Amino acid sequence: MLLPTSLCAQKNVRQEIQAAKAEIERINRLVGDTRKEQGVTLDHLKLVGTKLESRQKIVQGIETEMSGVTVELQDKTLEVARLQEQYDHLKDSYSALLRISYKNYRNNSYLSFIFSARDFTDAARRLYYVKRIGAQIEQKADELKQLSAKLGTEVSALNSRRAELANLQTEHAAELKQLEAEQAQLKKTQDALKGKEKQLLAEAEKRRKQLEALERQLQRAVNDEVKRSGGQAASGPLTAQFEAKKGKLLRPVEGVVVDKYGLHNHPTQKGVKVNNKGINIAAKAGSQVQCVYTGEVRKVFFFQGLGMSVMVRHGAYLTIYSNLESTFVREGEQVMEGTPIGTVAKAAAGQQPTLHFEVWKETTNLNPEQWIGR
């Protein structure tokens, strides 16, 4: 039988595959819009690269599933062989008892065997022996029936695993073909940008400096809010409720994460480092941004280059939504999970509109990707 941990691992891998497929669908929509509106740009290259990463996750996930199913298939094959051997042995024993019983019945030897006893005690003992043979026949018949049912179940499970492995092999071949096509698409996009390396490097460096300046402003806004609240919000029940939603918060906008959290290499420009205290989610301009969880709007503010921003408090936690064109909420307003709070702002020419999203626990910065669902 499959162990619960094995079933759980398979389920988790399949969930990862489905999440990556959903990400690719979102990217496909955005890539089409980006090419149509802007042509081939640095942000378009970033989307294509992110798509390739998701496809690689799918291929690796399917290979993990195939490996697991192959091991289970081997175990099932051994189990079926063991049960078949046990069934054949039990069937032989049952047949032997039936032959003895039929021979004695045909020769009427049961009665002769009992009546030839020396005394009553011997006759009772012989009668018990005869009944015992009958009981053994019934027991063997019942065991044979149960073992036959178990063998049928295991054979069915074995065939199911074989079919599953065949389906995974077909899916794997299709995904490898897609991966090859997307690698060619990435190279084509990179080739289209050749000759613009200096310009792109300067653009990436400009964005990095701009992001650092904006992050300093957001850090000051967080510090001001924590100082203003005096730590009172941390003691409320909303803190525990928010923590329980880790990994399951609503996505703030329908889009694709193109700039990850923390210090990392620039996704397309070698030698450029990016230190992001949140994540940037590529989305269509004008897309509706929603609050990820119940809370109170603590600040609605504007920073040059960052558009409108909204800060929402959820007990000890803060979420920040930036690069908004317009906002639908005001300071002090209570908002619910899914409440619309604004729309994604348009981007400069040649750039992809994005929502900048951050999560804080008071003054401690957190990785938003660990909090939102996929």
From TrEMBL:
The keyword Coiled coil applies. It holds the Pfam family Peptidase_M23. GO terms for molecular function: metalloendopeptidase activity. InterPro entries: Cell_wall_metabolism_enzyme, Dup_hybrid_motif, M23ase_b-sheet_dom. This is Peptidoglycan DD-metalloendopeptidase family protein. PANTHER family: L-ALA--D-GLU ENDOPEPTIDASE (PTHR21666:SF289), PEPTIDASE-RELATED (PTHR21666). Residues 276-368 form the M23ase beta-sheet core domain. It comes from the Bacteria. Keywords: Coiled coil, Signal. Residues 10-37, 73-100, 130-228 form a coiled coil.
